[in-house]
Amino acid sequence: MVHAREHPPGFLGHEAAPALQRRVVRRNRRLLSPLCVSLVYAAVSAAWIFVIDGALPVRWEGYTAGHWHTAESIGFLCITTLLLYAVLRSLQGRLDAMSREAAASAAAVRRSAQELERLLTLLPEAVLITHGQQIVYANQVAQDLLAPGAGERLRGSPLLERFAPECHAQVEARMAAVLSGGPRDLRFLRRTMLRLDGSRFEAQVGISAVHLDDRPAVLQILRNVDDALLAQREAEQARAELAALSSSLIEVQERERRSIARELHDEIGQSLSAIRVQFAKLQRRLDSPELLALIGSAATMTESTLGRVRSLSLLLHPPQLETLGLEAALRWHINELRQVHDVKIRFSAPRLEQPVHPDLAIAAYRIVQEALSNALRHAQASRIEVHLRCDAQALTVSIEDDGVGFCRPRDTTRPTLGLIGMVERARLLGGTLCVDSRPGTGTRIAATLPWKTP
């Protein structure tokens, strides 16, 4: 691989050498082949032998001693040439194998680098890679974050120019610590950064040491905190608006319940009472047994309807809650349920030493009312216990049954509106509501509501 500055599109090297360079390599390979080297060695050695032996002619018993010496030298030269060829051929085989392994390793490195570059391109976070103090790689997210619309101007620019001056010392110290091989620093630290146009933004910066082009480099991951803060503020605003809407809806619901209860009690109840009185007058004035029977049946139906209207009015808004207090209202409601349902309902409550704020009282009453309704309609319970407790910090109500139970709300994708309403009532008062239930083990609901001053 070559340096990233020599290959702008990424940080990979060139894929192939030029054609001229390949021809030069092949020619040099032929010239340095074992056969060529051995022939050159033989030719040079033979020339040396003939020159030296021709310069030293010595006669001995009719023969020239130089002739024998030349023949012996030529024989030795042939043997050494063959040995040299064999050794060079063996070395060439080893070098070829090593070259193939190196080529395979280089191809694997290129593939790994390509995969890494594709991975960095797909990351949703900005990534910078630096050699020294220069930016040599930036993925598209970093380009859009630091140099929107500036093309490749980010590459090759000094890294410190992308940080506010007051952050330069910290950035340099952290890069030096990472490159020195110290402990891994996995923190994302907040820094003020600068875009190419000079605008500032807050970012969280993570750093790690990497190797690029066989040299140590620094990889930095940038997270735009401004976008996260904006999203957080929008989420908080949405939660605040939702909480205000929930509070308003609950207030409207209670106001409508109170209005409907008053309408049922004052208007419809009085009208039914007047109808009952008129039936009684008709019964005293008529002598026909048939008409008296019809009037008596109508009077009985009117009396029954009047009782149901009064019960519905009390369920919508029990007057005991305002006149006698929370404990009395809960006792009345539980007694009414005992008469209708064949279920044992046990209620225990201490003597309240301090008055209960109306908002807290209505929230506790509605939570108990909804929990008892769920237990009687869905849990198939034979025993229900309701406990009211208080301490210096909060009022606690708990409802426990021995019914069939159900999956916890967080394990279901569609929690019931009744549970949502109970949780919301507790949350609006700064309290908590816990639901403990599993199939076959019953259900326990406990709400803790902090005291409010009346």
Task: Tag the structure with descriptive keywords.
11 helices, elongated, about 450 residues, single chain, 5-stranded antiparallel beta sheet, disordered N terminus, alpha+beta
Any overview of this molecule?
This protein has 454 residues and is an alpha+beta fold. 56% of the residues lie in helices and 17% in strands. The protein has helices at residues 19-31, 34-55, 65-122, 140-146, 168-179, 225-285, 289-316, 320-323, 326-340, 358-377, 417-428, and strands at residues 59-60, 63-64, 126-131, 134-138, 189-194, 200-212, 215-224, 344-348, 383-390, 394-401, 432-437, 443-450. Helix 6 (225-285) packs antiparallel against helix 7 (289-316), helix 9 packs parallel to helix 10 and helix 10 (358-377) packs antiparallel against helix 11 (417-428). Residues 1-10, 12-18, 58-65 and 409-414 have low confidence and may be disordered.
